[in-house]
UniProtKB/TrEMBL annotation:
It holds the Pfam family Glyco_hydro_28. Belongs to the glycosyl hydrolase 28 family. InterPro entries: GH28_Enzymes, Glyco_hydro_28, Pectin_lyas_fold, Pectin_lyase_fold/virulence, RHGA/B-epi-like_pectate_lyase. The gene is LOC100830144. It comes from Brachypodium distachyon (Purple false brome). Residues 1-22 form the signal peptide. Keywords: Glycosidase, Hydrolase, Signal. GO terms for molecular function: polygalacturonase activity. Residues 32-77 form the Rhamnogalacturonase A/B/Epimerase-like pectate lyase domain. It comes from the Eukaryota. GO terms for biological process: carbohydrate metabolic process. This is Rhamnogalacturonase A/B/Epimerase-like pectate lyase domain-containing protein. PANTHER family: PECTIN LYASE-LIKE SUPERFAMILY PROTEIN, PECTIN LYASE-RELATED.
Length: 456
């Protein structure tokens, strides 16, 4: 069975290589310098042929490291990694993605600066930078949302998603990415993948520049990552197969969209996912699930998470919800997935909107648990409140009173030591209520040690 793509926008990744002193040992992997194959490293001339020749030679020798010596800027079209080859970009070296459509393969799904297909043990590391030169793809800059170039002349992609990405691993396994910075992607990652110590810097006003997309991929570990980007930061998707055994820990996230988001591509199941010790700042949405295509979610833990969520322009999905769990059919006639056995433990937030838990008639939310959760509500931006955002599909944007928790179509919700704090002086103009729900759609509620308080 084919494995699925692991997609990266801009990331700093840690690959588990031996320490420098070990590199001189007889057991160390062979090193192939791209300079020995003719790379100029001046940022003006394309070094694609030299880099690819070094990769091919490394693979033919049984694997090792392909080195981009520092200092240097290496301009390239798509580089195709091979099994056993680690692209080593040290501090002071940059791999620059080309900005011409001809720099990339004909099929849009393969538009990556670095692409590994059907590989085992390939990776990226070194402490340097891969830069997609995303600014070159901005047609009209906007503080609300940039308008981006679209290479959709072939008809196999649409709108502002027709742009190249930075790093992609497709139908691959044993992927290792560490100590690398992925910078300025124009757009937005297999089995047994480790993503460690990765820094991602995407333009805050650019759409579709996700941080890490885990698409149809299993047994993935993301740890010690810093993600600062415009669109979704960590985003599991199930387009052609399930996503299971994903762990994300010790990460810092800032995004104009959703920090952790399941979907919205959700045709298959999500199972056994853990998110722990994560800090989220100034996100449009904190923890989100957009289940729209019939897949189910089960056995998910969010723990030890601190976040701050706020409003941005409504052209971005989200309305400042710290927690947003939804399932509904994307289109009339679509199957409705379910979400069950999800736990939120040791969570704190400061937010401009409340928790939004919305199942659907045939896609209930089941067995949710909130334990040791501290929710503070206050307003500090001037964007319009009083809206719930169901996008994509469903009911789109709906006017609604603001609730500390808004609940619909739920069977089994346990509240244990949950505090809601409403900031005095910031409530002017709010039409708020601690709990909003339609009783006919809810059963199995359990409240223990729950408080709603006005605070300074």
């Amino acid at each position: 069975m084919a494995l699925s793509p692991l997609l990266l926008a801009a990331v700093s990744v840690l690959l588990l290589l031996p320490p420098p002193q070990a590199a001189q040992s007889a057991a160390s992997p062979r090193v192939f310098s791209v300079v020995d194959y003719g790379a100029a490293g001046d940022g003006a001339r394309y070094d694609t042929a030299a880099i690819q020749a070094a990769v091919n030679a490394c693979a033919a020798a049984g694997g090792g490291r392909v080195l981009l010596p520092a200092p240097g800027d290496y301009l390239t079209a798509t580089v195709h990694l091979r099994s056993g080859v680690v692209l080593d970009v040290p501090p002071g070296a940059r791999l620059l993605g080309g900005t011409r459509q001809g720099d990339y393969p004909p099929e849009s799904r393969r538009w990556y600066v670095v692409l590994a297909e059907n590989t085992t043990g390939a990776g990226v590391a070194g402490g340097g930078e891969i830069n997609g030169q995303g600014g070159a793809f901005v047609v009209t800059p906007s503080d609300q949302k940039n308008i981006m170039v679209s290479w959709n002349t072939t008809g196999d992609c649409e709108g502002d998603e027709c742009r190249p990405r930075l790093v992609g691993f497709i139908d691959s396994k044993d992927v290792r990415i560490h100590d690398i910075t992925l910078n300025q992607p124009a757009y937005w990652w297999c089995d047994n993948s480790v993503i460690r110590n990765v820094s991602i810097y995407g333009d805050f006003d650019t759409p579709n520049n996700d941080g890490i997309d885990i698409e149809d991929s299993n047994n993935t570990v993301i740890t010690d990552c810093h993600i600062d980007t415009g669109d979704d930061a960590i985003c599991p998707k199930s387009s052609t197969g399930p996503v299971y055994n994903l762990t994300a820990t010790n990460c810092w996230i800032r995004t104009k969209s959703c920090a952790i988001k399941f979907g919205s591509a959700s045709f298959f199941n999500f199972e056994r996912l853990l998110f722990d010790n994560i800090t989220i700042v100034d996100a449009h949405r904190g923890l989100g699930m957009q289940i729209r295509d019939g897949g189910n979610v089960s056995d998910v833990m969010f723990s030890n998470i601190k976040m701050r969520t706020r409003y941005y322009h409504p052209s971005w999905w989200g309305r400042a919800e710290p927690i947003y769990i939804t399932t509904c059919p994307r289109h009339p006639g679509y199957k409705e997935g379910t979400i069950s056995d999800v736990r939120f433990i040791n969570i704190s937030s400061v937010s401009e909107n409340g928790v939004f838990l919305a199942g659907s008639r045939h896609g209930l939310l089941r067995n949710l648990k909130f334990e040791n959760v501290d929710l503070t509500y206050k307003r500090w931006t001037n964007y319009t409140g009083g809206l719930y955002d169901y996008r994509p599909g469903c009911q789109e944007m709906v006017k609604h009173r603001t609730g500390g928790m808004m609940l619909e179509h739920i069977s089994g919700l346990e509240i244990d030591n949950v505090k809601m704090r409403w900031s005095k002086g910031s409530l002017k103009g709010w039409d708020v209520n601690p709990l909003l729900f339609r009783p006919s759609t809810i059963d199995g509620l359990s409240f223990h040690d729950w408080q709603s308080l006005d605070v300074q």
